[in-house]
């Protein structure tokens, strides 16, 4: 059977995580968030985690060769045999080229790229309001999903603001996105497999609506 390879390339905080979870549920593919894999490695103090941590805390990108090596291993997992949804990868043109090469060796291509466009001011607002449980990892939003007890998760863990979600760092991450990742929109546009959409309060569309439309696009392919 043909392997499905999906890449989600929106800015940080554009709803890629939510979109991936929906696609995973609907299509039964392996969800690979390179950010989650990196954070897990940082938490466990692995060699990969030690290499990545300083870049992540500063809101910059982890070097391409580190990410490419990591993805190469993930593609070999048995769970990846049906297909993969990449969330937050590729983030640079050279990562996109490396992915194409890895896939070509297996006779596969990127099936579709989804770009969710959200105004930067909306993203900054969302991130400023996001809190994460330091114990179980649950995510709260101070405006639309506030904790019952201020500063506390339902599991009683302390809620914190992730280092890379502090406003100064978010500004840096958005600047990094604009410089290094925005060119991917043209990369996949030129390859003819881009689905471009907008979401967020200002345009009034939810991530779920975007995913519905994207799935219609997939059927048309
Ligand atoms: P978001 O999508 O919210 O920016 P992620 O959870 O995807 O954040 O990633 C968190 C951090 O991990 C990024 O700021 C970056 O430092 C690093 N990272 C994740 N994916 C990549 C990638 N493909 N290339 C380089 N760095 C990455
Ligand atoms: Zn918790």
Q: What characteristics describe this protein?
A:
9 helices; 3-stranded antiparallel beta sheet; globular; 15% strand; binds adenosine-5'-diphosphate; binds zinc ion; alpha/beta; 5-stranded parallel beta sheet; 221 residues
Describe the structure.
With 221 residues, this protein is an alpha/beta fold. Helices cover 47% and strands 15% of the residues. The chain has 9 helices and 8 strands. It has helices at residues 16-27, 34-43, 47-57, 64-75, 93-104, 120-128, 167-181, 183-191, 207-219; strands at residues 4-8, 30-33, 83-87, 112-117, 130-133, 139-141, 159-160, 194-198. The strands form 2 sheets. Strands 2-3-1-4-8 form a 5-stranded parallel sheet. A 3-stranded antiparallel sheet has the order 6-5-7. α2 crosses α3 (47-57). It is globular and about 50 Å long. It starts with a strand and ends with a helix. Adenosine-5'-diphosphate (ADP) binds at residues 12-13, 16, 34-35, 38, 55-56, 59-62, 67, 88-91, 95, 164, 173. Residues 12-13, 16, 34-35, 38, 55-56, 59-62, 67, 88-91, 95, 164, 173 line the site of adenosine-5'-diphosphate (ADP).
């Amino acid at each position: 059977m043909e392997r499905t390879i999906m890449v989600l390339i929106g800015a940080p905080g554009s709803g890629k995580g939510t979109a991936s979870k929906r696609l995973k549920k609907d299509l039964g593919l392996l969800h690979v968030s390179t950010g989650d894999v990196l954070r897990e490695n940082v938490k466990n103090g692995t060699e990969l985690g030690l290499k990545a941590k300083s870049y992540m805390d500063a809101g910059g990108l982890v070097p391409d060769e580190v990410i490419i090596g990591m993805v190469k291993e993930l593609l070999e997992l048995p769970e990846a045999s049906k297909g993969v949804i990449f969330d937050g990868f590729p983030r640079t043109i050279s990562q996109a080229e490396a992915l194409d090469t890895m896939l070509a060796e297996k006779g596969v291509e990127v099936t579709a790229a989804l770009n969710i466009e959200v105004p930067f001011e909306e993203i900054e607002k969302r991130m400023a309001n996001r809190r994460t449980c330091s114990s179980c990892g649950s995510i709260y939003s101070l405006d639309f999903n506030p904790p019952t007890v201020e500063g506390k998760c339902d599991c009683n863990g302390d809620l914190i603001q992730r280092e890379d979600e502090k406003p100064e760092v978010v500004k840096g991450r958005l600047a990094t996105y604009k410089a290094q990742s925005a060119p991917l929109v043209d990369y996949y546009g030129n390859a003819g497999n881009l689905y471009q959409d907008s979401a967020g309060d200002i345009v009034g569309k939810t991530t779920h609506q975007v995913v519905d439309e994207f799935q219609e696009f997939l059927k048309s392919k």
